[in-house]
Write a structure and sequence with these properties.
two-stranded antiparallel sheet, 9 strands
C-alpha cells in the first residue's frame, strides 16, 4: 500500500508538471504574426487586389488582340489545350482568396450598425467578385461557398446561374439601400474610391447595368427591368468616377498591375522585339482594324522594334497571323507588340468599370427603347470619346489630343439609318477596341452580342472544332474532391467543355 501510494503521488506530480509544460507550449506554439480576429479594412484591401487581378489572361488571344506562334502559349487564339491551368484560373483562385476574404470582411462588419457603410461596400464587392466567376463558368458554388471555416462545409453545392444572378442583383439593390451619410466609411483601405459612398453607389448601379445587359439573351424582360432600375439610379458617367485600381512600379508583386506583370514576364521583359519567350505579338485582326479606321490609339498601344528600338510609326505596325505553325517566323521582329510606356507599365491602372463601358450599354438601351434621355448616337459618341481619354491614365504616352479624338469620333459616328442589328454591330465593334485590354469583359459581351464578328481560327489540332470558346472549364480538383456536386452541375448545365452554353448564353 505504501509503495502504491508513492506511485500515485509521483504520477500526480508528473501530471502537474506536464500541465505546466502544456501552458508553456501553448505560448511557444502561438504565431506572433497571426490574429484570431480579422481587421476588415486590411482584408478588404486584399479582396480588392485579388478580385481585380484574378483574370483569364489567355482571353487576350480569344478576343484576337494577341497571339503566338507557340501552340501551348496561344491556347486562347488557337483553341489548343493539352496542358496548363489557364481555363481554371479564375475558379481555382477565387474561392480561397477574394470570395473567402470578402466573406470574412462581411462577417467582421455586420454586427456593428456604425459600420454600415463599410458593410454596404463589402457586399457590393462580393457581388462583383461572384458575378465574374459565374459569368465565366455558369453554375458555381454560391449559397454554400466560403463556409469551410465557419461551418466546416468543404463540399459546397453548385447553384444554377439563373438563381445566382437573381440573388446577386437583389443583394446589390439591398446594399445600395444600406448607405448612411452620417456613418463612417473606408479610407485608404479602399483602393478604388477611398470609401466615397457617392461613387460606390455609382459603381453599384453601373454593375447592375452591366449585369442587366448580360441577361438580354435568356430573359429580355428581366434584362429590361434591371437595366431600367440601374438607369434610375446614378451611373459612372464622368472620367472622375471610373472604378480603377492604381498600382506601383516596384515592391511586392501584389502591388503591380497584374496584366502588365503577366505580359512582361511571359514575353516582353527584354523589350527588343525578338527575345519573346512565349512568342507573343499582337493579332493581325486587331492591328488591321486599327489601321483601317485610322484609330489614334494605335501608336498608344503598339510598337515595332527597329534596330532594337521601339517605334510607334503607324505605317510599320503589323499584326501576326494566328495560324502560324509552332515555329518562330523569320520576320518575327517586324510584328507589333504592346507599348512598354502604356500597356506594359507595372504602375498602370486596371480599369474595373468605366464611363466608356456605361455609355455603350446606355446606347444599346436607347436602341432598345429602354432609355430616352439621350439618343443612341450621342451615347455612343460619349463612350467612344471617354475610351480615348482614359488612356491618359497610363501616363503622358497615352494622351490623345482632344482635336484628334473629335475628328475620329466624327469620322466613325453611329450610322443611325442602319438597322438595329447593324447599329449594334457598330456599337460593340467599337466596344471591342475601347474596352481593351479588358479582354475578359469583351469576351463576355461578345458571347452575348456576337460582336465584333470575329472569324474563328480553325488551327490544326484545336479542341473546339474551330469555334471560339463559350465558357471556361471547372478545374479537375472539383471533379475529384467535390464529385457529387460537380456531377449535379454538369448534368444540369451540360458537359464541362469550352462550348457548353450556360444560362446567360442561351
Amino acid at each position: 500500500m505504501k509503495n502504491r501510494f508513492k506511485l500515485i503521488t509521483y504520477c500526480l506530480a508528473a501530471l502537474c508538471t506536464l500541465q505546466s509544460c502544456d501552458k508553456g507550449l501553448e505560448e511557444i506554439n502561438s504565431n506572433p504574426d497571426a490574429s484570431s480576429t480579422i481587421s476588415p479594412d486590411f482584408v478588404f484591401t486584399k479582396a480588392q487586389y485579388d478580385a481585380v487581378g484574378n483574370i483569364i489572361t489567355g482571353l487576350q488571344g480569344t478576343m484576337q488582340y494577341t497571339t503566338s506562334y507557340n501552340d501551348v502559349a496561344s491556347w486562347g487564339s488557337k483553341y489548343i489545350f493539352n496542358q496548363g491551368t489557364a481555363p481554371y484560373t479564375v475558379f481555382s483562385n477565387a474561392y480561397p482568396n477574394e470570395i473567402n476574404e470578402i466573406g470574412e470582411v462581411i462577417r467582421g462588419l455586420e454586427k456593428d450598425p456604425a459600420l454600415v457603410n463599410k458593410l454596404a461596400i463589402a457586399k457590393i464587392w462580393r457581388v462583383y467578385a461572384f458575378s465574374k466567376i459565374t459569368d465565366l463558368y455558369g453554375d458555381i458554388p454560391y449559397s454554400q461557398a466560403a463556409l469551410g471555416y465557419t461551418q466546416s462545409l468543404f463540399k459546397p453545392a453548385y447553384d444554377p446561374q439563373k438563381d445566382i444572378y437573381a440573388d446577386l442583383l437583389g443583394e446589390l439593390e439591398k446594399a445600395i439601400a444600406l448607405f448612411d451619410a452620417t456613418k463612417s466609411t473606408f479610407g485608404a483601405a479602399d483602393l478604388i474610391y477611398a470609401g466615397d459612398i457617392t461613387r460606390w453607389k455609382k459603381f453599384a448601379y453601373s454593375l447592375m447595368l452591366r449585369m442587366g445587359m448580360r441577361m438580354t439573351k435568356p430573359d429580355i424582360a428581366l434584362a429590361e427591368t434591371w437595366v431600367k432600375k440601374a438607369i434610375a439610379g446614378s451611373l459612372i458617367e464622368d472620367d472622375a468616377d471610373i472604378a480603377k485600381i492604381t498600382y506601383m512600379a516596384s515592391g511586392q508583386v501584389v502591388n503591380q498591375n497584374p496584366l502588365a506583370y503577366w505580359m512582361l514576364n511571359s514575353d516582353y521583359l527584354k523589350a527588343d522585339g525578338i527575345s519573346n519567350p512565349e512568342g507573343g505579338k499582337y493579332y493581325d485582326t486587331f492591328i488591321n482594324y486599327l489601321k483601317k479606321t485610322n484609330d489614334p490609339r494605335l501608336p498608344v498601344l503598339s510598337v515595332v522594334y527597329v534596330n532594337g528600338k521601339p517605334s510607334t510609326d503607324v505605317r510599320i505596325q503589323k499584326g501576326m497571323a494566328a495560324n502560324i505553325p509552332n515555329t518562330k517566323p523569320a520576320d518575327f521582329v517586324t510584328y507589333s507588340e504592346p507599348n512598354q510606356n502604356t500597356i506594359l507599365k507595372l504602375n498602370s491602372p486596371m480599369l474595373v468599370l468605366t464611363n466608356a463601358e456605361v455609355n455603350f450599354y446606355l446606347a444599346e438601351a436607347a436602341l432598345r427603347g429602354w432609355y430616352t434621355a439621350k439618343p443612341a448616337a450621342t451615347l455612343y459618341d460619349l463612350g467612344l470619346k471617354a475610351a480615348m481619354r482614359q488612356w491618359s491614365l497610363y501616363g503622358s504616352d497615352g494622351v490623345i489630343a482632344q482635336a484628334t479624338i473629335d475628328a475620329y469620333a466624327t469620322a466613325n459616328a453611329l450610322v443611325t439609318t442602319n438597322t438595329f442589328e447593324k447599329q449594334l454591330e457598330q456599337l460593340y465593334t467599337q466596344f471591342w477596341v475601347s474596352i481593351f485590354p479588358n479582354s475578359q469583359e469583351v469576351f463576355l459581351n461578345w458571347r452575348r452580342t456576337g460582336y465584333p464578328a470575329l472569324v474563328p481560327n480553325n488551327y490544326v489540332g484545336n479542341i473546339t472544332g474551330g469555334q471560339i470558346f463559350r465558357r471556361m472549364l471547372y478545374p479537375a480538383t472539383e471533379e475529384n474532391l467535390n464529385k457529387e456536386n460537380y456531377n449535379s452541375a454538369v448534368s444540369r448545365q451540360g458537359d464541362n467543355t469550352f462550348l457548353t452554353r450556360m444560362w446567360l448564353d442561351k
